User: What shape does this take?
Amino acid sequence: MRKIALAATAALTLALALSACSSPAATEDTKPSSSASQSADDSATTTMTEKTGEFTGLNEKKVSGTVTVTDDEIALSEFSSDEGPDLHVYLTNGTDEAAVTAGMLVDAVSFDTATQTFTLDGVDTSKYTHVVIHCDKAKAVFGAAELS
Assistant: This one.
């Protein structure tokens, strides 16, 4: 008898806990959007930094396309580059080898894929002025986009 009472108490406690957790969510889902939640969304949007730039080739290499940098990603569009054996995207503060060395490696980049996106995690993009396409194997800058 004691086991049944304990089981009933546990079941009642679990049911109350679950209903307490799900009630606000159900209420929020049925409510029309409030201006408070819209304001929170708007402030999240306005705090996100977005910079763009147009690639130009450097050192007798061809690189073209557009780059968009936000707080959490780098997106290349209409991108193309001369072929290289080890091309990478860097965030830098200039376009020479010293800037690449001091900059931040983002990821490998495909020379012939027009649209590419790279996720940034915990990167303060406001610290960088350029996105550089660099051939790591040849230690050569192929092209860069100044961000504005």
